[in-house]
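Input (structure):
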């Protein structure tokens, strides 16, 4: 499972370079829910975020010997990982699988916890209702008991057998005798009935009290289960932190080497003669396109919609959805002069110049599902199209045969935007979907599908942008390109370590941060 944008629902703890763990706990970690949310991978955008979450992982592990041992073990492997990146691919996949499995388990446990909490609330409500019923019943019983006691007290002075006989024998006739006897029996029955009602009420009260006790026992059991769930969830979250730390150690080791290895590898197109021949064959088309670019007819510009929200799907509207495919780029279509968005529905998995966890990164990673359409960011020509790479892995060199080291299936676009000349690189695309070398494209035209080929741990599109000067040199530049895959802007290790960066004061050719163009 290779998922550069791995959807780790819970925490991400990231390691910076190769330094050992040093406790840095200036933060208050008492609000674990806040930190678990903050350290989800999609929420970590800056070096400070990575450092904070790294420190949180250390804090969690400090009080858990087993977790600390796991962190120590993976840190001890750092040097070996950097030297043997591809050998750790299976281990990386195992850790990623563990993280996803644990996150799934946590989701299930949290759902169970929610059910338990609902049951506890329901039981508590029932208990409160029963307690009120018991209070009402007790009031009735107290009233009945008071009456019975009063009657018994009043009757004590006269309730003698002789007195009853005197009453009966005082009858003058047999009819009076029967009437008096019946009256006494009726009084006795009434007293018996009231006594029976009192006994029944007391029996029901005791039964209700037992039901209440059972409910309270059930509540205590549910609360104990809830506490147990909380402990399990907490333990699972801690394990996620550590396993994600392991993932990041391996990925950071690979990332820190990627740009340097790319610079050391083949960074000049191996089929430059073929490229120059291709450009010569379409020389007239290049001249015509340059004329259209530099003297465009009025046409709506595909305007980017800047967003820094990683959850944004930034889906194209009906007006800015690119309509062309590789087979439909008619000359009659107006040339658009502004930047077009290269991919929709993406978020940042790594920004330009450095990976958040350390290591030089010369482009922007648009994290997006495999098979997502990619589009021409400007009007121009495809200088190079390199295919033949399957789904990749960290440390893969696929793509260097004709293109850049580890770039997988890659495109090199020369384009003009707002009168200036630019060179772009699209990497890690899906094999068999790329437009061919020499294809004339307009801004917003389809180029191929995103993927995870070459040196990649998950689906994304890596894009680099180089500023090359005046757009009026477009056709000549295409015909005379020397095959430099960096368009002359340099690689990692050169100049100030990042190639020629425009923002560092270098003139064309120089590298531009893609974020400044599309606002990601």
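Output (sequence):
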């Amino acid at each position: 499972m290779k998922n550069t944008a791995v959807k780790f629902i819970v925490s991400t703890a990231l390691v910076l370079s190769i330094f050992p763990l040093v406790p840095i706990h200036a933060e208050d970690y008492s609000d674990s829910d806040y930190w678990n949310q903050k350290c989800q991978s999609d929420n970590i955008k800056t070096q400070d975020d990575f450092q904070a979450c790294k420190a949180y992982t250390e804090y969690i592990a400090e009080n858990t010997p087993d977790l600390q041992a796991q962190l120590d073990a993976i840190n001890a492997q750092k040097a070996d990982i950097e030297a043997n990146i591809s050998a750790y691919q299976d281990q990386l996949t195992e850790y990623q699988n563990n993280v996803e499995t644990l996150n799934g388990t946590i989701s299930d446990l949290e759902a169970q916890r929610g059910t338990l909490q609902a049951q506890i609330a329901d039981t508590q409500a029932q208990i409160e209702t029963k307690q009120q019923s018991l209070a009402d019943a007790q009031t009735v019983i107290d009233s009945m008991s008071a009456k019975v006691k009063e009657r018994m007290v009043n009757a004590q002075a006269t309730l003698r057998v002789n007195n009853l006989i005197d009453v009966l024998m005082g009858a003058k006739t047999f009819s009076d005798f029967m009437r008096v006897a019946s009256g006494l029996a009726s009084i006795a029955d009434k007293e018996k009935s009231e006594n029976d009602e009192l006994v029944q009420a007391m029996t029901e009260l005791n039964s209700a009290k037992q039901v209440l006790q059972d409910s309270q026992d059930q509540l205590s059991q549910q609360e104990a289960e809830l506490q147990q769930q909380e402990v399990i969830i907490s333990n699972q979250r801690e394990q996620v932190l550590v396993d994600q730390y392991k993932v990041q150690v391996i990925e950071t080791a690979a990332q820190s080497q990627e740009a340097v290895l790319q610079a050391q590898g083949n960074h000049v197109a191996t089929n430059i003669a073929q490229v120059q021949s291709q450009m010569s064959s379409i020389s007239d088309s290049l001249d015509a396109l340059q004329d259209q670019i530099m003297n465009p007819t009025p046409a709506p510009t595909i305007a980017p919609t800047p967003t820094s929200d990683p959850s944004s799907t930034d889906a194209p509207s009906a007006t800015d959805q690119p309509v062309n495919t590789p087979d439909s780029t008619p000359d009659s279509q107006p040339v658009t002069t502004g930047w077009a968005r290269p991919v929709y529905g993406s978020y940042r998995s790594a920004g330009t110049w450095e990976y958040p966890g350390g290591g030089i990164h010369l482009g922007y990673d648009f994290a997006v599902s495999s098979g997502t359409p990619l589009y021409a960011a400007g009007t121009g020509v495809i200088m190079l199209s390199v295919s033949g790479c399957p789904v990749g892995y960290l440390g893969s060199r696929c793509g260097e045969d004709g293109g850049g080291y580890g770039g997988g299936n890659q495109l090199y676009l020369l384009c003009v935007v707002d009168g200036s000349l630019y060179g772009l690189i699209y990497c890690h695309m899906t094999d068999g979907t790329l437009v061919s070398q020499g294809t004339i494209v307009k801004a917003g035209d389809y180029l191929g599908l995103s993927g995870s080929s070459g040196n990649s741990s998950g689906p994304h599109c890596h894009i680099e942008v180089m500023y090359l000067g005046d757009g009026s040199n477009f056709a000549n530049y295409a015909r005379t390109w020397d095959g430099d895959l960096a368009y002359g802007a340099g690689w990692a290790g050169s100049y100030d370590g990042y190639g020629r960066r425009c923002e560092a004061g270098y003139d064309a050719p120089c590298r531009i941060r893609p974020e400044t163009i599309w606002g990601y």
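Notes: Confidence is low (pLDDT under 50) at residues 1-24, 301-332. The chain has eleven helices and twelve strands.
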